[in-house]
Amino acid sequence: MKILVSVKRVVDYNVKVRVKSDGTGVDIANVKMSMNPFDEIAVEEAVRLKEKGVATEIIAVSCGDAKCQETLRTAMAIGADRGILVETAEELQPLAVAKLLKALVDKEQPSLVILGKQAIDDDNNQTGQMLAALADLPQATFASKVEVAGDKVSVTREVDGGLETLSLSLPAVITSDLRLNEPRYVTLPNIMKAKKKQLDTVKPEDLGVDVKPRLKTLKVAEPPKRGAGIKVPDVATLVDKLKNEAKVI
Ligand code: AMP
């Protein structure tokens, strides 16, 4: 069974992002970039399925500029077998990424596609759902447990009221939530091994996909600065302030 995993290169979660002075976006010049944390979880899950003997091959895919090769090498150091870079300098929106992944699903015919539930840079939470719709595949988003049995996959999802378990027929699309697993540390020997793994590069045109942005960003602004907090001496004062000053209770 083949698994396709998508990995996005995003601003590292430890970086405090700054908005560009002209309000056109976030400044990513000279900023540390890493694999989207939910995608690390997605790769880890695929690797665990391979270690259990369920999966036979894991293909990591990243869409973006040539630097995404680093992200693919990290995925291969975690345990992906090969990587595909869909190289473009164009700003990619979720629909474009979903179309690129759909083209690769058609080509590679994986039994399972695992994406992150959202990319921490744009927080769209759209790509997995759009891919499932375009590829006409069943989907289970926000997975916290994945179990494959025969031609079915059982996925536990964290929903507001508790846990929901879905059974999907393979092939299917899954998006990973935070509690699905804890990704392993990438070891030096595995980083070295990953350098020798196959990494193919294709262009969106090769896949017949037009990736031109469909949405226009009008303005990006910093959130308003929060005022300093205060310390209250006791609960009675806190309740009084919440009632009479903040008027929230
Ligand atoms: P989003 O819908 O943008 O929040 O992204 C959800 C998931 O889609 C991410 O966690 C990735 O797995 C995948 N994804 C989004 N953009 C890309 C990209 N440029 N390259 C690879 N995967 C991506």
Automatic annotation (TrEMBL):
SMART domains: ETF. Residues 23-211 form the Electron transfer flavoprotein alpha/beta-subunit N-terminal domain. CDD domains: ETF_beta. It comes from the Bacteria. Keywords: Electron transport, Transport. Belongs to the ETF beta-subunit/FixA family. PANTHER family: ELECTRON TRANSFER FLAVOPROTEIN BETA-SUBUNIT (PTHR21294), ELECTRON TRANSFER FLAVOPROTEIN SUBUNIT BETA (PTHR21294:SF8). This is Electron transfer flavoprotein subunit beta. It comes from Variovorax ureilyticus. The lineage of its organism: Bacteria, Pseudomonadati, Pseudomonadota, Betaproteobacteria, Burkholderiales.
